[in-house]
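Example record

The entry below shows one chain as it appears in the dataset: sequence first, then structure tokens.
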Amino acid sequence: MRANNLLKLGRTKIVLASALMVALVLGGFAATAVAADVTESEVVDYLKAEVGSWANAEPLLSKADINVPEAGFPLPAPEEDFIVPLVCHGGEGNPFWNTVEYGYETAKKMFPVKGTMYRPATEFEPRWQQNILVELSARKDVDTVATTLPHPTMFDEVVQDLENQGKTVIAVNSDDDTENARSAYIGQAGYDAAYQMAKAVWNKYYPETMGYEPDPETIQIIMPEGAPGAGWCQERIKGFKDFLEEVGVDTNKQVYEYKTAMNPTAQKPNAMSAIQSHPDATLVLATQTCGGTYLAMKELGMEPGEIVVVGHDLIEKLVEGIDEGYIQATVDQQPFLQGFYPVVEAYFHEMFNMTVYNIYTGGKQISKEDVEIAHEFPKIIG
């Protein structure tokens, strides 16, 4: 079975999976007498062309006395169950986190790792999340914990306690920007992604959509904010505003901010109200999915391009809105990888004492020109 089939990525090349498979085979060579007519470089070259095609690889590998089972090359398993739970702030109704969960479950099928993904009933319940982490810190069978850190201080104590016990903590999706004991972060660089999106809006999406350059002295901006008390949201707000202030926008007077839900359907009423109460606004900068703005514009009978709309993440309603021209762009952050990579890192850290490390998973601006990939790989892109 090819690694790209395992990840359901079609023709997309997965460099990580390739590297892992090569490393596993070379690890097998370290413990196996290699026949003189088969070299490690030959195996590496072969796997570069045929990653994971074990049926075709068997004749070559058998020369090195490597037995290849039909199910694929076996991963060495821990002596006891290796448990890696994932705790997040994403509510059960948030479609973004369905993709994170899909990545997490996919990784558990590929690696001998067990665990549960914990999601609150509603969005951003930090006290609930803290309680789950405290419970996990008391469990003797938990080895590594992946968790979001959406608050700058309230998780510090429990994360330190987990690390003190030798339970590695990997932050996922949202990081604590203050001093924290977690060992690694896997996710988007939120401030940079928002800053670069605002810059792209100013120089590309706005003039292309409206037909004229934005005027920093008169432009009126709507800024929907999902969970404004969360660290990830504050990072994005700051990224947006820092750029706007650099070009001369008075963010205290020209930006209307309001709290919104994460689900597009729940976002729509507030989006309609914001648009109706700010008829001069020509730009929406959303710190989260902006599917609700798209739905609101259609409900109000507006045409695509009457307002420039950009946001974060890539879910079905955003893809639909981009296709129809109501949304100009969104910033992707690869939710599949945010669920997948923590399992991979935790496994190799446990089995081979490899270092866990930061992985930045996204920041690409996806507009109509390149949204096709979201149609082809919806469970991967998110």
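Notes for this example: DSSP finds 16 helices and twelve strands in the chain. The CA atoms of residues 28 and 113 lie 21 Å apart.
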